[in-house]
Amino acid sequence: DAGVTQSPTHLIKTRGQHVTLRCSPISGHKSVSWYQQVLGQGPQFIFQYYEKEERGRGNFPDRFSARQFPNYSSELNVNALLLGDSALYLCASSFLDRNTEAFFGQGTRLTVV
Amino acid sequence: QQPVQSPQAVILREGEDAVINCSSSKALYSVHWYRQKHGEAPVFLMILLKGGEQKGHEKISASFNEKKQQSSLYLTASQLSYSGTYFCGASTGSGNTGKLIFGQGTTLQVKP
Fold first, then answer.
1. Distance from C-alpha of A24 to C-alpha of A92, rounded to nearest angstrom
2. B74-94 tens-digit pLDDT
3. Which of A71, B19, B47, B93 sits at 20 to 30 Å (Cα–Cα) from B62?
4. How many CB pairs under 8 A join A and B?
5. pLDDT tens for residues A65-109?
6. Residue B7: cis peptide before it, omega within 30 degrees of 0
């Protein structure tokens, strides 16, 4: 069975540019969450979508946005990139939005130069 | 407020046991444990739900004290493959699995 897949795996962008990260959840999973992980720290919650509706937003600026498509895949968009946006971006999917396991994809390593 | 994990780091010999603790200042609905190896994604280990239900790997055990807002992960007879950074993720409020607040991590190194 395919796990959570993210693309691309690595990305280098210049300050001020825009980036789109993609996530395909495990088949049948309806909840997708995005996390940012800076080196040496735990993942930090950015967004959650369940059944194509935003269910939560973390403490991130409006430059960060996301959406979920009818097939439950998701995109994370970041505008006006800053050096501090360099991190591992993780996507996690779960079947339901509560009381169930969440599984992570391999992440997208974003480097802003 | 993120959960606080202790210890921050631990070094073991193969076969030794370890306990990793996770403490929250907010009421916990569920606790999720993950292991992450360098350069890889976090791997799901266990979920502990309010009320006592647990789901996870057979060889991993954990406890969840709802009153004390604490959880502990027990690693027994450690193997080299147990090395990595362990994170606890806390779900508060209504138990939303999709919005986990993670601790800072505990680095475990198992030596031969």
1. 9
2. 999 999 999 999 999 998 767
3. B93
4. 79
5. 999 999 999 999 999 999 999 999 999 999 877 778 899 999 999
6. yes
Number of residues written out for chain A: 113
In order of their start, the domains of chain B are: 4-111 (2.60.40.10)
Number of domains comprising chain A: 1
Separation of alpha carbons A38 and A88, rounded Å: 6
Query: H helices then E strands: how many in chain A?
Result: 0, 11
Structural domain boundaries, residue A9: 5-112
Q: Taking an 8 Å Cβ-Cβ cutoff, which residues of chain A contact chain B?
A: 31-33, 35, 40-45, 48-50, 55-56, 58, 90, 92, 94, 96-107
Q: What b-and-e string marks burial along A93-108, b requiring 16 or more CB atoms within 10 Å of the CB?
A: bbeebbbbbbbbbbbb
If you measure CA to CA, which chain A residue comes closest to B57? A101
Query: What's the mean per-residue pLDDT of chain A?
Result: 94
